[in-house]
Amino acid sequence: MRLRRLHVAVELRSGATIDLPERSARHAAQVLRMRAGDEAIGFDGQGRQFRIRLVSSTRHGVRAEVIEEVSPLPESPLQITLAHGLSRREKMDLVVQKATELGVARIVPVITERSVVRLDSARADKRLAHWEAVIAHACEQSGRAVLPLVSHPIRLGDFLAERNRDDAGIVLDPDSPTRLADIDLSPVILTLLVGPEGGLTRDEAEAAHRNGFIAAAIGPRTLRTETAALTGLALAQARWGDL
After folding, report:
1. Is 239 exposed, middle or buried (0-12, 13-18, 19+ CB in 10 A)?
2. In whole angstroms, what is the distance from residue 41 CA to residue 61 CA?
3. How many whole angstroms separate alpha carbon 129 and alpha carbon 123?
């Protein structure tokens, strides 16, 4: 039987007894309905995972014994950063969740001219914590032992200025005559730039091009921003990664 999985954000080592962090304890006890004696795979989010057994589960907390280290699934050989135009909450949640399942290494919400969402510092902090929880749950579900990084929202111009231009970059552009599947690249590191609802402006697309991005379309149909991002990721993983 496949063991359930828990992200456990503490140091894990064989033979140790640990107190599960609050989120992990609540997920184990209230969502998974685990009890003393039940086993799971606990992973630290940095690539290591262990078989663990619950020792106690009470209203005061959950304790577990770390039994043995087990081999994790390998990460994709293609390190993808998804720079996605900041969108409405439900769309961003879907993108963050499914991008994690598809093996993305980093997610950067970028603020563009057509971004309809505006976050002050406090709201941005709360949204970041929420995205981190979405990522942890997606890793639990998909079998990943490495949590993708997610950043605070950043203006597109600042993101382009900070990006390493030696890394490959693709910007999704429905008007491009080049399809993503036809691009002649052999990248190890790739940035995929996707606009928000309404897409990127022509000035933003040209700024990306000046910063080394290749414009590419992903098909003849008009896709929603979340569909475009996930389709682009899947195509990139199928072409250069592990799908």
Report:
1. middle
2. 18
3. 10
Boundary-marking domain end, from 70, 103, 125: 70
Residues 31-71 pLDDT 10s: 889 899 999 999 999 999 999 999 998 878 899 999 999 99
Kindly state the tokens that stand for 76: 């994709």
CATH number of the domain that residue 37 is part of: 2.40.240.20
Model confidence at 152: pLDDT above 80: yes
Helix (H), strand (E) at residue 235: helix 225-240
pLDDT value at position 117? 86
For tokens 């993108």, name the residue.
95
Task: Collapse the DSSP code of 149 into the 3-class scheme (helix H, G, I; strand E, B; otherwise coil) and give the result.
Answer: strand
Q: What is the largest CA-CA distance in the chain?
A: 60
**Dihedrals phi, psi of 57, to nearest 5 degrees:** -145, 105
**Its pTM surpasses 0.85:** yes
The secondary structure of residue 17, as a DSSP letter, is: E
Tell me the pairing of strands 149-150 and 61-70.
unpaired
Look at residues 12, 5, 9, 145 and name the one whose alpha carbon lies nearest to residue 74.
Answer: 145
Residues 64 and 87 in one domain: no
Residue that has been written with the tokens 């909450």 in this structure: 89
Residue 184's domain spans which residues?
Answer: 79-240
State which of 48, 70, 92 marks the end of a domain: 70
Amino acid (one-letter) located at 141: Q
The letter for the amino acid at 60 is H
Same domain, 159 and 112: yes
pLDDT tens digits, residue range 187-210?
999 999 999 999 999 999 999 999
d(CA 207, CA 130): 30
